[in-house]
Design goal:
With 260 residues, this protein is α+β, with helices and mostly antiparallel strands. It is 27% helix and 21% strand. The strands form five sheets. A six-stranded mixed beta sheet has the order 1-14-13-4-7-8. A two-stranded antiparallel ribbon has the order 2-3. The protein has a two-stranded antiparallel ribbon with strand order 5-6.
Amino acid sequence: MDRYYIPEVATREQWLAARKALLEQEKALTRQRDALNRARRALPMVLVEEDYRFDGPQGEVGLEVLFHGRSQLIVYHFMYHMDRGEGCDGCSCLVDNIGHQSHLHARDTNLVLVSRAPLADLEAFKRRMGWTLPWYSAYGSRFNYDYHATTDEQVAPVEYNYRDKDELERLGLTYHIHGEQPGVSVFLRDGGRIYHTYSCYGRGLEMLMSSFHFLDFTPFGRGEGWDGMPDLDGKGLNWTRLHDEYEQAAPTHDCCAHKA
């Protein structure tokens, strides 16, 4: 390992002084995050008027069924590559980081995956990965297009992370202009009505990646070669794999998570 990435050696007293200085920054960030969460909770909401249909284990169902009787619903828009017959490795890494749902259920909240792919394909990949999360197909539905997790200007105006096609092209983010995209959408059920309260894309999804946060505690961080981190294995941002493929040769990535 290049010595450039090894922290300086100090006495315990010097370390403690530096650690206390960092603690003040951490506390400031915590207060800022609390303020951001308050602002997020205060966002206005929009009535969902479209009768979206999904294919699930129970057959064809509406959006209300995805709540499983709860008041709040978190949908992770999972990128599934039908041409490869497998899920995006970045999305798969994220799902691997999702813990037991009992804690969400205790807060009247349900979490599901939704993808624009046939249900049989999703269920086969789910078995391969050993996941238990509910997974629904939005294949043939406008759901992913309306919530900007699938971009195709033949179906709907292009928008990703609240940027239109012109802005995405101007910023060189052309991989968001067509195809499957990652995202999270949140809904609230009040009686017989459902409201859209929040959607998040891009690096905002990192809050769901507990492995990233664990790595951020360490001297090498995520080992991706940016922001002062070493590139641990020469793969840069392109290091995540399906969890059963880490010992195999590196695949060719084609999802947006690896095109920064």
